[in-house]
Design goal:
Layout lengths: L13 H8 L3 H38 L3 H29 L1 H20 L4 H29 L5 H5 L1 H24 L5 E3 L2 E2 H7 L2 H13 L4 H6 L3 H11 L6 H17 L15 H15 L2 H6 L1 H8 L6 H26 L1 H23 L3 E4 L7 E4 L3 H31 L6 H30 L2 H21 L11 H11 L3
Antiparallel strand pairs: 1-2, 3-4
Helix pairs in contact: 2-3, 2-5, 2-7, 2-8, 2-9, 3-4, 3-5, 3-19, 4-5, 4-8, 4-9, 5-18, 5-19, 7-8, 7-16, 7-18, 11-12, 13-18, 13-19, 13-20, 15-18, 16-17, 16-18, 17-18, 17-20
């Protein structure tokens, strides 16, 4: 780290004129650091989808029952919950970047060991290890981005986490398809006598290595450095990412002030509070995370084959159609990036909740018209079909749901989790909220097949629509607008909201 005094450009004067005359290099630096941190989101998306292409081959290779197969698929989510909780606590002790490196190492090792697994049980263990790694990455990336980004860019840069997740999902589905096609099937031998499904896991070493190298090279969070008494380093980093007309030294003094205030209120430096044992702001973060999953977004990505078959497509085409949905998910994330710092967090979340309620409700209504026919490929099995235009209605509604989710709740929950918590508890609170998100993801993932088998598709989609409706009123009454507010001013925003409430 070079000496701040040697950097030449001061927070005012020539730097400001340079900014007016062309592109602000400080914004470019903030974007580059945020992109590097968001690679952890790529691991998140990649791992959550890579199992899809391998699951049938794994089930056949190890002769697994449906129950054990479901466990192997979903167990990584429990590891992710543990990793999110662990990452939040470790990052306050070790620093944000060191914990990123830990997440990358865990994912790298688990990718190798999953690729050479000799049984379902050791594969499940390595899946848990991968889950811990991506759970860590899911927590640290939004915290780091929120702490490194200028307030005017924080929403857009925070949205990079979700963009990276969607790109990771797309990359996993595409690599699975290419590997399976090259081998003639996921269970067929590909290179060096290893089946294609093993290579699906082994490919994960590439993004893990990239993430680890980037995490090793990017600077530490300024707020962590100030907390550890390393003000000069924090000032130098802030001078690189703040606009030229903002005083980095003054920002460091603001951070120091909030830290001293937190020390004076040491009893509040924990997550404990009067609301069922936790601070109200922590509960807001938890419920944002839970609602993000309880609207059933992962049902679309994990179980989309059922929907495609209901419309009449062959199961062999499911890779292609799932990839198309993943591309839609990537594309609409750019809508959030473009609007989040202009429109704000709350309006977009409210639009998303209303849109998801409508589209999920339409899917539930469409499946009331469903009927079962014998499966021509598997004797004794049946498949669900929709008559006439109801199939097209369900498909349009499903993709519209992905659009509403991907443009609002997908990225904006990560933005809010990165910025809404007080400095003193940010990493730990984000870890708790992200753990709740992974647990909610697990519950939705394992419950959908049972709900589908017992009640058909109408009941689960109606349930998801109900949660989407509840999320609208939750945002309307409990979620503050944080657009343009500096992290050091978030606590004042909460006090102001409490003061405005009627006695």
């Amino acid at each position: 780290m070079s000496d701040p005094a040697s950097r030449g450009t001061t927070p005012s004067g020539g730097g400001a004129s340079a900014a007016r005359g062309g592109r602000n290099p400080h914004a470019g630096k903030a974007v580059a650091l945020s992109v590097a941190a968001a690679v952890g989101g790529f691991l998140f998306g990649f791992d959550s989808s890579v199992i899809n292409g391998a699951v049938e081959a794994v089930q056949g290779r190890f002769a697994l029952s449906d129950v054990v197969t479901g466990l192997v698929v979903a167990v990584a989510l429990l590891g992710s919950a543990a990793g999110a909780w662990l990452g939040g606590h470790l990052s306050d002790r070790w620093g944000r970047t060191r914990v990123m490196v830990l997440g990358a190492v865990l994912f790298f090792v688990s990718s190798v060991l999953s690729g050479i697994a000799f049984s379902a049980w050791d594969l499940a263990i390595w899946r848990v290890m991968a889950g811990v790694g991506i759970g860590i990455a899911s927590v640290i990336a939004p915290a780091y981005i929120a702490e490194i980004a200028p307030a005017r860019l924080r929403g857009r840069l925070g949205s990079l986490q979700q963009l990276a997740i969607t790109i990771g999902i797309f990359a996993a589905l595409l690599s699975d398809q290419l590997l399976a096609s090259s081998a003639g099937g996921a269970g067929e031998d590909l290179w060096f006598g290893a089946e294609a499904w093993r290579w699906m896991f082994l490919v994960g070493v590439v993004p893990a290595l990239v993430y680890g190298v980037l995490a090793w090279r990017i600077p530490e969070s300024p707020r962590y450095l100030v907390a550890k008494g390393r003000q000069d380093e924090a000032t130098a980093i802030l001078r690189e990412v703040l606009p030229p007309d903002e005083d980095a030294a003054a920002r460091v003094r603001e951070i120091e002030h909030t830290i001293r205030t937190d020390e004076a209120l040491a009893a509040q430096a924990s997550l404990r509070g009067p609301a069922l044992g936790l601070l109200p702001v922590v509960w807001v973060g938890i419920l944002l995370s839970v609602f993000q999953q309880f609207v059933g977004i992962n049902v679309i990505f994990y179980y989309s084959t059922t929907l495609w078959q209901a419309v009449g497509f062959e199961e062999s085409d499911s890779f292609t159609y799932s990839t198309i949905t993943a591309v839609v998910n990537v594309a609409v994330t750019f809508i959030a990036i473009a609007l989040v710092d202009r429109v704000g967090r709350r309006p977009l979340l409210l639009i998303g909740s209303a849109g998801m309620t409508l589209t999920l409700g339409l899917m539930a209504v469409a499946f009331t018209q469903s009927f079962e026919v014998p499966d021509p490929e598997q004797a004794g099995e049946v498949i669900t079909q929709l008559p006439g235009g109801w199939g097209v209605t369900a498909l349009v509604a499903a993709n519209a749901f992905v659009v509403f989710f991907g443009a609002t709740w997908g990225p904006l929950v990560w933005v809010l989790l990165g910025e809404m918590f007080p400095n003193r508890i940010r990493a730990a609170a984000l870890g708790v909220a992200a753990s709740a998100q992974w647990i909610a993801n697990f519950l939705i993932t394992v419950s959908f097949p049972e709900l589908l088998g017992r009640f058909g598709a109408t009941v689960p989609y109606f349930m998801y629509a109900t949660f989407a409706l509840l999320s609208f009123f939750f945002v309307l009454t409990k979620v503050p607008e944080t657009k343009g507010v500096e992290l050091e001013d978030m606590e004042g925003l909460r006090h102001e909201r409490r003061a405005r409430r009627p006695a």
